[in-house]
Amino acid sequence: MIMRMKLIHEIRNCTLCADVLPLEPRPIFQLSASAKILIISQAPGIKAHESNKPWNDASGIRLREWLKINEQDFYDAKKTALIPMGFCYPGKSPSGDLPPRPECSARWMDTILCALKNVRIKILVGSYSANHFIGNGNLTDKIKEYAFNEEALIVLPHPSPRNNIWLSKNNWFEKESLPLIREKLKSLTI
Questions:
Q1: What is the mean pLDDT of residues 7-13?
Q2: Which one is the CATH code of 2-189: 3.40.190.10, 3.40.50.261, 3.40.50.720, 3.40.470.10?
Q3: What are phi and psi of 41, to 5 degrees?
């Protein structure tokens, strides 16, 4: 318990990337040693930065709908750990947000994973987390592979409205993959 509280305090006070961030460092995450679900994403968006709450936007609503996790359970750190690859808002690019800062995962990810001993299922959201944990490759292929296997690992596209084109081109995801993903999630976390 003491080590976990120390870890949370250290991450909340991290300023590793302060000189390259567009706004003040504000590490946004949710962590508890008792969490059974671990969701690893890319980096907080501007709305999350402003509210200091992860997934506090349309992407979060869609993610909760995909997983059939209500808001109360989603934001209960004892049930769901929410860890981005980069803890702070990285800034804007012409096509969306900038990639997560690599310093965060290099500094914190192994320590966090060691602290999460009760996790039963890991959900990788988007290419940054999928590439980090599975290796480089086509995200669509990874989504298909991990929806239809027995591993306690799920790969999802980013739920951003910017991905509506991908979703319309890959309607198998919502029709075939999501029901399997929800079943896997339910069976592993009961």
A1: 95
A2: 3.40.470.10
A3: -120, -160
